C-alpha cells in the first residue's frame, strides 16, 4: 500500500504513527510487538491524531539513530526495513517490521520475562508467562492441545462421554483415540493429550481451571445488573447446544411462540452465533489463565469471547477473508468429525455472510485484554427489564428460575419433540431416576409437556413436546 493510502487509515494492529523519535522506548515496544504478533508499519514524522505528515528535521541522522536503538535494545536481534520517504513535501521514516521466526523478541532492559510485548488493536500489551510460551510454541510448530499429560492415564478420560459424542460416527477404541490424538505416546506410555483432557477429561477444570463457559443475560447495555446466568461445565462439543439453549431462551421472551421456529422471526442471528460459539471453543488459548469462554446477552447486542489473542500472523481482516491458523488441532479435528465444523477457515466468512442474509447488523471482531470478542448488534432491542416482576430479591440477583430443572427441560424442547434419551443427552443427565423425578414427571404432572403417543406411554417411539402452558412458562422464564 502507498504512503498516502496508509495515512488514510487509523492506527491498528499493523500500523502506528509517531511524530518523532523523542520517546524511543515506546517505539521499541511497538517494533517488538509487531515482530511478535503480525508484523506492521511504523511511520515516523506523522501526527498520530490528525494523521497529517509533519516531517522530521534530519532524516539521515534519525534513521541511523533508530537502527542503532533497535540493534542495541531488542533481543533476539531484529533487523526491520527502515526507509526514508517523502509525501506532501514532508520527509518521513518508514519502519517495516515482519512477523519474526525468532519470536518472542523482548526489550533487553526489561528481560525475557517482562520485556515481551504483543500488539492488541492500536496498543502494545506486555505478554504474560503463558502468552510467551504460546509465542514460542507457534515458532516450534508445537500445539498446546497436542502436548502429553505424563502424570495421567487413559482412566482420566471420560470415555463414556467421548463415546456418546461420537455415537453413530465411529467406535472409540484405543487406536481411534490415538488417531484423534486424544491419547498420545510419551516415554513408552500411553497418556491423555491436553486436548483429550480439555475435550473429555474427568476433573477437567482441576487441570484447566478456565475450561468452562460462562453465560449471562444482563439488564440494559452494560454488566451492572445481571438477570440470569449459567455456568456450563460439560464436554466442549456438548457445550455448543447448551449455550445456544441459553440464548434461545432469552431471545424468546415476549416472542410469539407459534412463529418462533421460523428462522426469519428470531430476534437474534442463531446460525452466525452458533458459528461464533464454535469458533470460541475451538480457537481459545486454553493455556491462558484468568477467565473462561464468555457469552453475554445485552438488550442491544450479544458478545462471544474467548481467552487468547489471534494466532501470530493473523489479523481480523485475515479472518474475514477465511485465513485461519488452527491453534488447537486436536479440538478442531474432533469438532470437525462431529460435523460441528464444515470446512477449515470457512466459519468467520460464513458468520458475516449469514448475518447479512438474515437482515441483522454486521458483527465486529475485536481483540482486548488478551481475549478475542465477537460482537453481534441486534436489529431491535430485547428489553429484559419488563420481565422483572417474577424475579425474587434485589435487581442485581439472578432469578432462581435460571437453574429450575423444569425450565431447563422445557428449553430443551424448543426446537421440537424429543425422546427421553434425547432429553437426557441434551440436558447432560446420566442418572435416569434423577431425570424422571426432578425433570420429566414434574413437567408432565403440571401440564407443561405432553406425550406424542399418549395411548402407549411405554412405547419405544415415545417423545415429549411442549404444551401451550409450557410455551407460556418459557416466555415468562418461570414455572408455578
UniProtKB/TrEMBL annotation:
Residues 404-467 form the Filamentation induced by cAMP protein Fic-like C-terminal domain. Keywords: ATP-binding, Helicase, Hydrolase, Nucleotide-binding. InterPro entries: Fic-like_C, RecG_C_sf, Schlafen_AlbA_2_dom, Schlafen_AlbA_2_dom_sf, WH_DNA-bd_sf. GO terms for molecular function: helicase activity. It comes from the Bacteria. The keyword Hydrolase applies. Residues 11-127 form the Schlafen AlbA-2 domain. PANTHER family: GLPR-RELATED TRANSCRIPTIONAL REPRESSOR (PTHR30595), SCHLAFEN ALBA-2 DOMAIN-CONTAINING PROTEIN (PTHR30595:SF6). This is ATP-dependent DNA helicase. It comes from Dissulfuribacter thermophilus. The lineage of its organism: Bacteria, Pseudomonadati, Thermodesulfobacteriota, Dissulfuribacteria, Dissulfuribacterales.
Amino acid at each position: 500500500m502507498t504512503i498516502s493510502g496508509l495515512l488514510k487509515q487509523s492506527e491498528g494492529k499493523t500500523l502506528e504513527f509517531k511524530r518523532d523519535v523523542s520517546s524511543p522506548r515506546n517505539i521499541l515496544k511497538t517494533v517488538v510487538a509487531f515482530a511478535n504478533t503480525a508484523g506492521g508499519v511504523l511511520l515516523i514524522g506523522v501526527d498520530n491524531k490528525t494523521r497529517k505528515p509533519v516531517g522530521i528535521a534530519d532524516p539521515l541522522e534519525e534513521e541511523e539513530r533508530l537502527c542503532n536503538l533497535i540493534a542495541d535494545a531488542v533481543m533476539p536481534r531484529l533487523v526491520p526495513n527502515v526507509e526514508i520517504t517523502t509525501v506532501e513535501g514532508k520527509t518521513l521514516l518508514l519502519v517495516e517490521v515482519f512477523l519474526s521466526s525468532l519470536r518472542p523478541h523482548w526489550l533487553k532492559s526489561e528481560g525475557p520475562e517482562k520485556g515481551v510485548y504483543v500488539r492488541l488493536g492500536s496498543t502494545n500489551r506486555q505478554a504474560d508467562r503463558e502468552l510467551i510460551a504460546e509465542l514460542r510454541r507457534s515458532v516450534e510448530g508445537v500445539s498446546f492441545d497436542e502436548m502429553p499429560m505424563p502424570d495421567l492415564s487413559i482412566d482420566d478420560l471420560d470415555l463414556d462421554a467421548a463415546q456418546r459424542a461420537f455415537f453413530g460416527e465411529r467406535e472409540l477404541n484405543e487406536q481411534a483415540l490415538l488417531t484423534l490424538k486424544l491419547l498420545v505416546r510419551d516415554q513408552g506410555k500411553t497418556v491423555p493429550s491436553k486436548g483429550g483432557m480439555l475435550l473429555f477429561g474427568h476433573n477437567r477444570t482441576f487441570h484447566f481451571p478456565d475450561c468452562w463457559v460462562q453465560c449471562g443475560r444482563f439488564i440494559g447495555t452494560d454488566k451492572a445488573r445481571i438477570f440470569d446466568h449459567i455456568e456450563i461445565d460439560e464436554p466442549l462439543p456438548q457445550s455448543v447446544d447448551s449455550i445456544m439453549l441459553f440464548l434461545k431462551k432469552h431471545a424468546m421472551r415476549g416472542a410469539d411462540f407459534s412463529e418462533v421456529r421460523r428462522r426469519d422471526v428470531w430476534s437474534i442471528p442463531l446460525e452466525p452465533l452458533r458459528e461464533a460459539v464454535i469458533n470460541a471453543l475451538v480457537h481459545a488459548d486454553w493455556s491462558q489463565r484468568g477467565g473462561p469462554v464468555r457469552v453475554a446477552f445485552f438488550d442491544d447486542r450479544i458478545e462471544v469471547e474467548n481467552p487468547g489473542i489471534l494466532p501470530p500472523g493473523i489479523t481480523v481482516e485475515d479472518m474475514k477473508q477465511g485465513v485461519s491458523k488452527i491453534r488447537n488441532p486436536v479440538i478442531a479435528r474432533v469438532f470437525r468429525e462431529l460435523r460441528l465444523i464444515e470446512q477449515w477457515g470457512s466459519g468467520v466468512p460464513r458468520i458475516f455472510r449469514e448475518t447479512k442474509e438474515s437482515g441483522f447488523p454486521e458483527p465486529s471482531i475485536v481483540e482486548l485484554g488478551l481475549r478475542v470478542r465477537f460482537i453481534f448488534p441486534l436489529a431491535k432491542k430485547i428489553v429484559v427489564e419488563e420481565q422483572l416482576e417474577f424475579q425474587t430479591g434485589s435487581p442485581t440477583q439472578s432469578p432462581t428460575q435460571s437453574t429450575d430443572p423444569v425450565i431447563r427441560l422445557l428449553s430443551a424442547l424448543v426446537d421440537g419433540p424429543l425422546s427421553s434419551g434425547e432429553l437426557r443427552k441434551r440436558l447432560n443427565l446420566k442418572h435416569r431416576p434423577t431425570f424422571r423425578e426432578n425433570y420429566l414427571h414434574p413437567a408432565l404432572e403440571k401440564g407443561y409437556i405432553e406425550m406424542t403417543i399418549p395411548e402407549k406411554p411405554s412405547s419405544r417411539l415415545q417423545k415429549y413436546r411442549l404444551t401451550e402452558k409450557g410455551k407460556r412458562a418459557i416466555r415468562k422464564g418461570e414455572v408455578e
